[in-house]
Specification:
The structure is a single chain. Helix content is 40%, strand content 24%. With 113 residues, the protein is α/β, with parallel strands linked by helices. The chain is globular, with a radius of gyration of 12 Å.
Amino acid sequence: MNFNINREESHAVIASQVEKLDATNAPELKSELLVLNKNGVNTIVLDLSKTRYCDSSGLSSILTANRLCKDTNGQFILTGLQENVLKMISIAQLDKVLTITDSLAEANNLVQK
């Protein structure tokens, strides 16, 4: 499995286990996000600390997560971004739209209880 999902009381944490978030695994992430959303989870923390590369397919899955959470009055937090991934998000100007934290602990603290 490329993504570990940990259900907390108020949210879910998805930890990427892939080095590259791209067209080969982004559909799996989208699928996991949709299942969580259908099961009533509207606050998600996506931990990309093990991911060193992200292409447009990966960005699309990140935006899907953000939209699903916002559409259900939830919250989406992105954390653990490595330099290359953060650069890609900045180039796409998504850093202005997404909530990004440096650490998982910081993301968990941001979750509205």
